[in-house]
Amino acid sequence: MSHLTDEARAASRAAQPTIDMGANSLEAIVAANPGRRSVLKNGLLGLSILPMLGTLAACGDDDDDSSTPTPTPTPTPTPAPSYSISFAPVAANMNDTVTVPNGYTVDVLLKAGDSVEAGTPYSGGFPTAAVAEKWAGGNHDGMEYYELSGTDANGGGLLAINFELPDFNILFANGQPDPVTATAEQRAVSLSAVGVGVVEIAKGADGKWGVKAGSKYNKRYTGNSIYRASGRAAGLLSTSIKGTLNNCSSGRTPWGTYLTCEESTENYLDPSQPEENYGWVVEIDPYQELDAATKRTELGRFDHENTAYMADSNSRVAFYMGHDGTPGCIYKFVCDRAFSSSNRAQNRDMLDHGTLYVARFNADGTGEWRALVQGQNGLVVGATDPGNVSQSVTPPAPVKVDFNNQADVLINTISAARVAGGTVMDRPEWITVAPDNSAVFVTLTNNSSRRVTDAANPRTVNRHGHIIKFKEEGNSPLAMKFSWEIFLLAGDPKLAGFGDKLEGNINGDTFSSPDGIRIDPKGRLWVQTDHSVPGSSGDSARTIEQIFGQNAMFYIDQATKKSSRFLVGPKGCEITGLAYTPDLKTFFVNIQHPTGDWPVSGQQPRSSTIVVRRTDSQPVGN
What we know:
Blueprint: H1 3-8, H2 10-15, H3 26-32, H4 35-58, E1 104-111, H5 129-132, E2 140-146, E3 156-163, H6 184-192, E4 195-203, E5 209-211, E6 219-221, E7 226-230, E8 241-242, E9 247-252, E10 258-262, E11 281-284, E12 294-296, E13 304-311, E14 317-323, E15 330-335, E16 354-361, E17 366-371, E18 383-385, E19 399-401, H7 406-411, H8 413-419, E20 428-433, E21 440-444, E22 466-472, E23 481-489, E24 507-508, E25 514-519, E26 525-529, H9 544-548, E27 552-556, E28 562-568, E29 574-580, E30 586-592, E31 608-614
Parallel strand pairs: 7-12, 24-28
Antiparallel strand pairs: 1-31, 2-3, 3-4, 4-5, 4-6, 7-8, 9-10, 10-11, 11-12, 13-14, 14-15, 15-16, 16-17, 17-23, 18-19, 20-21, 21-22, 22-23, 25-26, 26-27, 27-28, 29-30, 30-31
Region (Disordered): 60-83, 596-622
Pfam family, one: PhoX
Organism: Sphingobium psychrophilum
């Protein structure tokens, strides 16, 4: 979550197809053995021509049967690409550029205000709502890459991108208008710059990527668009819902749809809208084949950060989610039935049928999933919500809550999770699942207001956050028990003595406020940071940037826990969002809310999606 989001919604808060088949997917197969792609592409011709060449070489005019034919040379096999991490870490800095290791290149792919649908892009003036509705929105966040049938996925595909908050500096002369007194046109302009964009992208002959203008797949889903709702809470929402907004991070399904996560339970850009319409996971089909964009209420209503799924060999699947709150809980939704890997249409209501659970982390390193089902775990009429017990040494007064039916549980999931005994964590943001289901990682970004600790959240005034790792029993998405450990505590040795364990225990390049996290198909762990700019480090004499530099992206070795700084962003930004091509030679990363002279010198700073590649065409990480 951008710190700007907190500022934007502060007033309202005070007032109030290619189907992803896991290990069998093209992405996983090619990542494991990139040579498979050339064999499949060449087909039988590529396999049969060598024996034919051998036969021709043995034929000739010479009657001397004793002559020995020249042997056909054995082709030198193309060496498999290396996915080992060998880049030289970059130094922390405060430069107004994107810093990457030697041997890498950075290109800007899509800026706030660039055209998604056909129209006039940003060129320095302020737009009407009709114009801005076709632009890439602002504060680019989570994203996913999708393959296209008939296209080499390493050279082209679809990119679905979240837009968390408007880049107000390119929309209005005087910044964000007051949402309460704003005109209808001003609200429409603001709402045009949130939501989701889907663009078809392709790599050119020069190796650089670009958006394919005019593609039938290019589409905006904005805060002005109309959405439907499904699930048992749908009847408590508007029949047609205006807008999705605060689209923070995201996820995907095994059947190739996009899950955008609303990180706000009210429409702070248009307070006239019912608050129950927001705070959901929205399912979008980037191929535009299945349902229209739908808010799936069975996954609960809270400040959603992202989703990550775990699937087993029987096509049973669970989706993990974090509530980006101080504090917030960790959830999973288990679908009632197996998904179809051969018929996408059979999966269109998968997220309408299942059970939502909240995680409880026990002090002995065990954990359990508690069902958020009306009538179970205290979710009844007259239930007692203990409140945010971690934020004050004096417990808050409990509040009575009525859960009359499952719709009440889904509308008021935050309260239901506490009633059921879920552990309140320090801002659970991104979640990622290991390719072999052996681990789930969660970033707990920070919680400087925590005053009461527990085993899973061991620091008061947790300015720098931590990462927790848990393992489902039997590596199964259907498990009801798990084991857990604190993977690392963020911080820096220079902060020893300035607060409750502010030094952390990072091995290698230090960082604060882990946010984005993703394990790629080769099992490599990447972490992105979101410390406030400017922000407090805990040492009153030094800012957070003076300790850690600007927000960055790191590789972390899961065995040694050593962190290596891979990328540093420009001034004022957050690093967020990570997607990649199947061969892992192209990484897409989002730069959110820069404040300096980036990405175009002399123009307004704009949130942007960048492309990171090696200059020698090897996988990222070498």
